[in-house]
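Quarterly update from the structural biology core.
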Amino acid sequence: MSLSSWDDYPVHQTAEYIRHPATSDRNFYDRYYFNLHGSSDQVMTIFGLGQYPNLGVTDAFIAVGTKEKHRVIRASMPLEDRSVLQVGPISIEILDPLRSLRVKCSENEWGVEMDVIWTASHEPLEEPRQYLRREGKVVFDTMRFAQMGRWNGFLSTPDASWDISSDSWGGSRDRSWGVRPVGEKESDGIRQGVSVMEGLWNYYPVDFDDHAIIYMLQETNEGVRELEEAMRVWHDPDRPNEWLGKPEYEHDCVPGTRMLSGSTIHFPEAGISMKCTPLLANYVAMGTGYGIEDDWRHGMYQGPNLVAQGLVNDVSDIAGIGQYGIVDHVGRFEYDGNVGFGLYEHGFWGRFEKYGLDDRGATFPID
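Predicted structure, tokenized:
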């Protein structure tokens, strides 16, 4: 049945049930992403939940990363009512829209539990629309907003537990929706050998005492910037956001890898140079559905019933392949006497020849 509880609210945008997006593109998605850290190198936890209405699937994950272990709980099931934000043990509750949410990973056989409440530090920032077309096909057409916030609650694994309090535990979240590659891999057709997002990806949302800086850049191997953002967002809602101008980057590469040991992001028009230091990496592409494994991708049909799985790996065993996807770090950021913490996210896909990456399998040259 197409009718669901959301259809009782006046939120329709087309002459369709809420269950059905306006577009019939198989790759339509609607997703939550969060990260949680203690402003240190103790633990980096990333979790999310997505719906894929035209694939008939919803799924969720939590990835708890420490220096030694990478633990993932993931779950998938057929999508029924889009108002239900729970997949297996993982759930999201909207307490106050755009201001406060609760995320849980309930007791499970793999011993990872979490119950945390996130409170926004500032009004949401509407990020630029991402629109990419490759060989005639629209591969990205997405909208997203981002916010920094603080966490309260608890997190535990079989190895450790953490009391989460807003004095030191922060993180960012985003909400995105639209069209991007999801589900079972499609035939490339004319796009064989054409990367959807070849090049560099940076995303650094950072929380300082009374403001946030949100820097984002997607740059192709040819140097074309297909997406960029550089905003200072004040916690005081009466103080307007500031565009910091065109960002420039200097990245310190770990020889022989696609990893970074640090960066300096310059905002010349604002006279700001921000030093960025990664504290702890979470290889979030491993096990969570971001595309490295063929058997579990966001939106992939896993069968007619709920499927929940737990994975645990030594970080040393997954770092080699994990560097070819998104890597999320806890980061320390400094500029003009300001010290903040946030997400230091990078990815290098395929060629990025200015850093010595010549093909999909290339790595940074060894000094």
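The two ends are 61 Å apart (CA to CA).
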